[in-house]
Amino acid sequence: MLGVAGLALATAMPHLALAQSAPSVQDTAPPVATPSAEQAVAGDNQPNAAGGPQAGDIIVTAQRREQTALKTPLSLTALDDKLIEQKQVTGLVDLQFVSPGIRSGQQQGVNRVFIRGIGLSSFASGADSSVAFYADGVYVGRPAAQLSSFFDIGRIEVLRGPQGALYGRNATGGAINLITNNPESEAGGYVNVGLGNYSLHQAEGALNLPLQGTGGDLNARVAFKLLDRNGYGYDFGTDHPVNDAHTQAVRATLRYNPSKDVDIRLIGEYNHEADNNNYATNFGAYPGYQLSGVVDFGGTQIAGQQDAATALRGNTNRREGYAVTLNGTVSLTDSLSMTSITGWRKFERHNDASSDGTTAGLGSTFYNEWSNQVSQELVFNWDADRLQVTGGLSYYHEKLRNYVLVPFIQLGNVNYIQQGALKIDAYSAYIQGTYSLLDSLRLTVAGRYSSETRKSSGTFSFVTVTPLDDRRTWNAFNPKFGLEYDVAPGVLVYASATNGFKSGTFNVGQVNPAINPEKIWAYEIGAKARLLDNAVDISAAAFRYDYKDLQVNKILGLATLTTNAASATNKGFEIAINARPAEGLTLNANYTYLDATFKDFTSINPLVPTAPAEDLSGKMLPGAPKHAVTLGGSYVIPVGGDSSLTLSGDASYQSRIYFSEFNDKVLSQKGVTKLNASVKYSSGDDWSLTFWGKNLTDETIAGNKTLGIALWGYPIYGNLEAPATYGATLAVNF
Fold first, then answer.
1. How much of the chain, in percent, has pLDDT values that exceed 70?
2. Cis omega before residue 315 (within 30°)?
3. 97: helix, coil or strand?
4. What's the CA gap between 651 and 658, in Å, rounded?
5. How many CA atoms are closer than 13 Å to the CA of 566, on its beta-carbon side?
6. How many Å apart are CA 699 and CA 305, to the nearest integer?
7. Where are the strands (E) in 557-642, listed by range?
8. What's the mean per-residue pLDDT of the chain?
9. DSSP designation for 177
10. Residue 5, φ and ψ in degrees, nearest 5
C-alpha cells in the first residue's frame, strides 16, 4: 500500500534531525492532573496565538494535529485516562455524563450513538452511523464492532457536529476518537481487579516491556480486559440468564522510535464474547392490541423488565473480532510531517432476539454478520509563519456479509431470510488551511472530495425468492469555512459553516431501494474561555443544521425499511462549565437544548396502514431530547503522607426521547435522571481502592423501542439500560 511504502521510507530516514518537529496526528502520552474535560488556553499550535498549554491541559488531535482541547475551534469534549476512571467511563453509554448532547443506546449489540440528536436510527446490516467512530485513527465501519476497545485507554475525544472535511463520510453528527495507551520506556504496568453485584468479576491491566533496555527506542505494551457477570435478568422461557457477560479482550502494542523524528506503532487486538448479552427487551403489545404468541399460541410474556420469556436458547450473543493497526509519523522537514494510518479489521457477530415477545417464538430472529475491512490514510501537516495546512488521502474497503433468519411458524414454517453481501470502496482527498490574518485572527478554509461505490448482491426469501443485485456510486465535495479570534489570552470565539454527507447504502439482503446519501450544512458560533485566574473553563456554542435526504426508518408490512426524509432542521445551543473553586475541588455542569424536527417528511403509520401518509413536519427527530443536563464534581481530601480520599458524584438528565418519527409517547422514554458516585482511597501512586455505583436509584431506562408487525400483534421490543450496579475495584501500579 501507499501508506506502508511511505512508512518504510520514514523508517529509512532517521538522519532527519530537526530543530522543531511539526505536530502530527500521532498520539502523545496524556498529561497528568487534568482538571476538567473541557479545557482551554491560548493554543500553542495556532499560528501566532498568544499563550501556551498549562499543566493539566489535554492535548487533542481533533483537527488531525496536536492542539489543546479548549483552543480547538469546534465543540469538543476530551477525557484523559484519569477522567475516564473518575467518570466511570467503561463504554459509550457512559459518555452522557461527560459530554453535552450525547447518548448511546444499543440494539442487539449494535452501537446506536447520537450526538445532538443525530445518530444511527437503523440497525439493518449495511447501515452506517451518522457519528464516525475511530480507534487509534482507524475508522471502524460496523456499529456492532465499536463496543470492544474500551480498555487501557489513554484518551477519548468527542467531536460534536459535522466533520465533513477532515473526517469525511459518515460524520454528519460528529466523531468519536478513541486512543489507546502507548508503550512506555520503563518496565512496569498496572492491574485493576473489580467485584460487584450480579456476581461481577472483572480485571484489566497492562504491562510495559522495554525491549532494548530502559529508555531504548523499541518498547512493547500488552493490555487485557476480562469481564464475567451474571445476568441482569432471567429468561423464564428457556431457563438461562438475560444480559450476562463473558468477554475477553487483549491488545499488544509495539512502538519504535529510531530517532526523535520517527514514531511507529504496531497494534494488534482480539476480542471475544459468548453469553446472553445485548438481549432484546419485550415492552408488551401496543395499547389496544394483544400479542399473537399469547392469544393464539398459548405462550407467556414478561414485559418491561430485565427478566424475559422467550423461545431463545443460549448463547444468544456470540461475537469475535481481530484488528491490526500500523501507525507511523515522520518529520520530513522542519515544517512538514507525514503520518500513515493503516488498518485491518475482521469482525463477526451472531445475535438471537425475540421480536414477538413471547415463549411461542413467533418472531425469533437470528442475526448473523461478517465484516472484513481494510483502510489506508496518509496525513500531511505543513507549518509556515502564518499558515498551517493539513491534507490527506484515504482509502476504505469493506466486504460485509449478512444472514437474517425469521421462521414464520404462523404461516406453516415459512422462513423469512435476508442473505447478501455488500462491497464498499471509498476514496477521498482533503485539505484544510488556517491562515493568520492578524496575530489573533485566523481564517480556515477546507474541502474534501469523496467517491464511494457500493455493490449489493444476494437474495430475499419469503414464500418466493427475490434476487438482489445493485451497484451505485456517489460523489461528494464537502467544504468548510471558519473564522476564529483570540479576544484575550485564554478567550477564543469562533464561527464556522460546514458541509458533510453520510454515504448512501443498501440494506443487505432486503428488498429496499438504494438509500441516497444524507447531506448537511451546519452553522455554528461558539466561545471558549479560561477565567478567574484559571479557575473556571467555559465552552458555549449555538448551532443550526439543515439536513437533506435524512436517512430514517419506515415499517412497511413485514419489513423495516430505510428511506430518505426530504429535509430536517436541528437548532440548539449548549454550554459546559468546569470550575476549580478550591484546592482539590472540581465541579462541572453541561446543558444542551435541541429543537430537532422534520421539515418536510411524510410516512404511513404502520398502525393504520390503509390510511394516507401522515405529514410529519414539525415532529421531533428520533433520538433527540429537547433538554440534556449533567452535573458532577469531585473532591480530593489529603489523609496523610501521599494518601488521599476522592469523593465523586455525577448526575445526568435527559428529557423525553422519541424512538418513532411519529413522536408516539408509547414508543419513547420519558425524562429520566441517572446518578453515579464513587469513593476512592489512594496510597500515593502505588495502589488505590474504589467503591463505585452506577444508576444508583435503579431507574428503568429504555435505550430503544421498536414497533413490531401486525401479524404478531404489534409487539414493542427494544432494550433496557443496566439497572443499579455497584462494586469495588482494587488498582495496583508496579
1. 91
2. yes
3. helix
4. 21
5. 9
6. 11
7. 559-582, 585-600, 602-603, 614-615, 627-638
8. 88
9. E
10. -65, -40
The Cα–Cα gap between 30 and 36 comes to: 13
**Three-class DSSP labels, 459-502:** EEEECEEEEEEEEEEEEEEEEEEEEEEEEECCEEEEEEEEEEEE
Q: State the Cα–Cα distance between residues 359 and 409, nearest whole angstrom.
A: 13
HEC readout, 294-358: HHCCCCCCCCCCCCECCCCCCCCEEEEEEEEEEEEEEECCCCEEEEEEEEEEEEEEEEEEECCCC
217-231, 328-342, 604-618: which has the minimum mean pLDDT? 604-618
Q: Using CA atoms, how far apart are residues 356 and 301, in angstroms rounded to an integer?
A: 9
The answer to whether residue 438 scores a pLDDT higher than 60 is yes
Q: Strand pairing of 174-180 and 131-135?
A: parallel
**Highest mean pLDDT: which of 3-7, 53-57, 427-431?**
427-431
Burial class (CB in 10 A: 0-12, 13-18, 19+), 342: buried
User: What's 522-542 look like in SS3?
Assistant: EEEEEEEEEECCCCEEEEEEE
DSSP bridge partners of 447: 431, 479
Is 83 in a helix, a strand, or coil?
helix
The β-bridge relationship of strands 643-654 and 657-658 is unpaired
Q: Which of 345, 346, 396 is nearest to 375 (CA)?
A: 396
Residue 57 has pLDDT above 80, yes or no: no
Condensed to tens digits (0 to 9), the pLDDT of residues 91-146 reads 888 888 887 678 887 777 788 888 988 888 777 788 888 899 999 999 999 988 98
pLDDT for res 263: 95
Tell me which amino acid residue 693 is.
G
Judge contact between 731 and 687, C-beta under 8 A. yes
Alpha-carbon distance of 271 to 152, in angstroms, equals: 14
Global pTM reads 0.89
Contact at 8 Å (CB) between 61 and 55? no
C-beta neighbour count of 726 within 10 angstroms: 16
Q: How far apart are CA 335 and CA 337, in angstroms?
A: 7
d(CA 412, CA 119): 38
d(CA 731, CA 652): 27
Tell whether the model's pLDDT for residue 1 goes beyond 50: no
Give 341's contacts (C-beta < 8 A, 6+ positions apart): 3, 25, 137, 138, 325, 326, 327, 375, 376, 377, 378, 379
Instruction: Report whether 195 contacts 203 (CB < 8 A).
Output: no
pLDDT tens digits along 348-370: 999 999 999 999 999 999 999 99
Q: Which strands form 281-285's sheet, in the order they lie side by side? A: 281-285, 715-720, 702-707
For every residue of 681-698, which 3-state class applies, written as one string? EEECCCEEEEEEEECCCC
| Angular region, 174: left φ>0, alpha ψ -120 to 50, beta rest | left
Q: H/E element holding 406? A: strand 387-408
d(CA 283, CA 79): 36
CA angle 713, 714, 715 (to 5 degrees): 100
State how far the Cα of 71 lies from the Cα of 45, in Å rounded to an integer: 9
Q: Is 683 in contact with 642 (CB distance < 8 Å)?
A: yes
Q: How crowded is the C-beta side of 393, counted as CA atoms within 13 Å?
A: 7
Q: What are the residues whose beta carbons fall under 8 Å from the beta carbon of 237, sequence distance 6 or more?
A: 300, 308, 309, 310, 311, 312, 359
